[in-house]
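Below is how a single chain appears once it has passed through the pipeline. First comes the sequence as given, then the structure the pipeline wrote out for it. We keep one example in the README because the format questions we get most often are answered faster by looking than by reading.
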Amino acid sequence: MSALRRAIRPTKPARTAEAASHWRLYFFRGSLFLVGLVIVGRLYVLQVVGREKWIAMAEEQHTVAQALRAEWGSIALRDGDLAYPVAVNREYKLAYVIPKLVEDVAGTAVALSAVLGVDESLVRERLSDRADPFEVIKKKITPEEEAKLKELKLKGVNFLPEVYRYYPAGELASKVIGFVGPSDLGEIGIYGVEAGWNGELHGRDGTLSQERDAAGRWISLTDREHVEPEDGDSLVLTIDRVIQYEVEKILAESREKFNADSGSAVVLEPKTGKILAMASVPQFNPNEYGKTEDIGLFMNPIISLPYESGSVMKPITMAIGIEEGKVSPHTEFVDTGVVNEAGYNIQNAEGKVYGRSTMTKVLEESINTGVMYVERLVGHGAFRDRLRSFGFGAKTGIRLPAEHPGNLKNLDNLKSTIQFLTASFGQGITVTSLQLAMAYGALANGGVLMKPQIVDRVIDRDGEVRPIEPEEVRRVVSQETSKAMGEMLRSVVVNGHGKRADVPGYLVGGKTGTAQVAKSGSKGYDENITIGSFVGYAPINDPRFVIVVKFDNPKDVQWAESSAAPAFGSIMRFLLSYAKVPTTEPIKK
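Resulting structure:
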């Protein structure tokens, strides 16, 4: 038995080895099958599921796409029956070098530095990179610089034409126009009309696509995909060139005379809402915007910087009181010089007391207690609603960027009486100069509020002209209230603080406002800083022009009657003469 066991014992390992060999073969075949499935699956994904993606990638490697730039539309101001261009396209040359073609690196660097005014070491560094096929030395070189370099016949120095935005009028209306600058999406309008109307002005770029060979060369026999660019529309603004120039001139002179931080003015037609001038000083040159150290100069304060307007808000309060039937120009009240509310004494300017006074006198003498009296009669809710109806607390809808809606949030709580009382004379709420212009424009326009208009007409790339029609917003007061307010504002100029705004021979009406400026970071107002405003229109019997003039922190005068009022008078005098408006009143000699 033991011999038999010894005889059969060697046969067991042989069978085990044979089984293992078969198992390895099956495993190998199975693995090959699984790998095959993975490969087939991957090929299915690549060739079927992701077919479009890979075709696109292959085509991209063999296709050259070139952008065809659309031409920007121009911007012009009105100039009589003509248009005065203020934003156009202009071709400049770019100076560049091909380093490997430069024979004398040191000499070429010296020459380029001397002619173009660029740093010599920087030029030398760029010339030294022989592997670089293209190095820009300077953009927008002058014709004189190009001529001098061509005379030198420097090896490897070349010129490339590029189209840039150019502003032929320089600083004129620069804060209205804005400028074009670089972005991640290419050149776009930045600030002003350039930004607000970027879509129309920019147009739509085209493309030119064609296959290329492995060396990157065009394959001439293949089809090209050609999408034509669509050039931008051109704009003619409502701004009048002559009026804009004169307003800017008067503002600059007045700002210097009164030693103010800044000044601004807006002129509009009350019947159409068209802006004839929108100016502020100091200004900037859009051709050299990169040199402007204070980017705040790019902002248009007339639409972007709200302020507590002060007493120029009083005629709006009075118009609300008349429209609500609570007062008339002849309604009397007794002024005691102070109103106590919530533990605060609210006084008239300089603590004056006027006694028995009509509503007309309230505006003439700018009596704070008088408009607080009107606000109480109207009621907080109705007063707030009427302010909103006039357009305060909301954007006017002018198509310019960064318009501020102003702020009436202090009037959210109808139980906060003190906020409503101070709002009646323009304190505690903020408004923009444009909102004031449109609100007074409604008083001048028979009670109808218009939408402000900055573009007069659009001219498309085919030359078709599309006029922009005036747009009514809503009626805010009646014809009767409008007429009464005109008479009261005329009385302010004749008998009140607006005398220096008058123009001999014409019926001019308006209101001064000397506003306080809230302290930064604390409660209360800074006693050393004021804002002087004057808002008005003329002729009262047939209003042609509404003007808002504002000076920030005039240091050499205290009251608006000595700063904004005379500047208003100078602008209005020019406007009435320029428009050949006939006189209606005798002129005293």
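Confidence is low (pLDDT under 50) at residues 1-15.

See the next section for the split statistics.
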